[in-house]
Specification:
Number of domains: 1
Number of strands: 0
Mean pLDDT: 78
Shape: elongated
Order of helices and strands: HHH
Low-confidence stretches: 1-6, 14-18
Helix content: 55-70%
Distance between the termini: 62 Å
Number of helices: 3
Radius of gyration: 22 Å
Strand content: under 5%
Structural class: mainly alpha
């Protein structure tokens, strides 16, 4: 992660520490809609940083998942109790 992205992520993270990124983005969307001219640019910048950090997080999770795909267990018991016998 570049230092600019890290700075942006820290900027919005310090704003909503206890919220998930989705909650933060929803909150900032509401704020940007309700913002007056004086605060619009600042709130829009926070929203932009939150979206960018969320995208970077999702990309990192995708890379990790592709690099380490889950293995399929080979020793699972058969689910015979779920099969109904013909009456």
């Amino acid at each position: 992660m570049s230092s600019r992205i890290a700075t942006e992520a820290n900027c919005f993270a310090s704003y909503h520490v206890a919220m998930s990124s989705e909650q933060t983005i929803k909150s900032l969307c509401t704020r940007v809609i309700d913002a007056d001219d004086a605060e619009f640019a600042a709130v829009a910048a926070d929203l932009h940083a939150a979206l960018k950090a969320h995208i970077d997080s999702i990309r990192a999770m995708a890379v990790a998942a592709l690099a380490n795909p889950p293995s399929r267990p080979t020793d699972l018991p058969q689910a015979t109790h779920l099969v109904r016998e013909a009456e």
